[in-house]
Here is the input.
Amino acid sequence: MSTADVLKKMGFIGGQYLDSAALPLAPGVEVTVERVEKAQVQRPGSKPEEKWILHLTELPGFPMILSAKTNRKMLIARLGDDPSAWKGKKIFIYRDPDVRFGPKIVGGIRIGGGR
Here is the structure.
């Protein structure tokens, strides 16, 4: 059974994008970058926004929205500034319960080491 199948069965993923609830705390899980693209993303009750989307080989159909500047900076620091060269590179993703959205602590996904 694939990682995505296990997470679906456990009820952790079922939406269009990867949710932080699907991930363990640091150090997290190692995943492989499949591709990066820009796409229109819309939260309920909000206008669509263009966001960077990270597709992961181990989680097909559940891409990660790169809305946090911290995650984009981490990817560039770890993998270089050319997203087309990220394919096949390994990173760690994990749930960080202390991620803030404005003044509110909401939790979120963070990116750790890469190779």
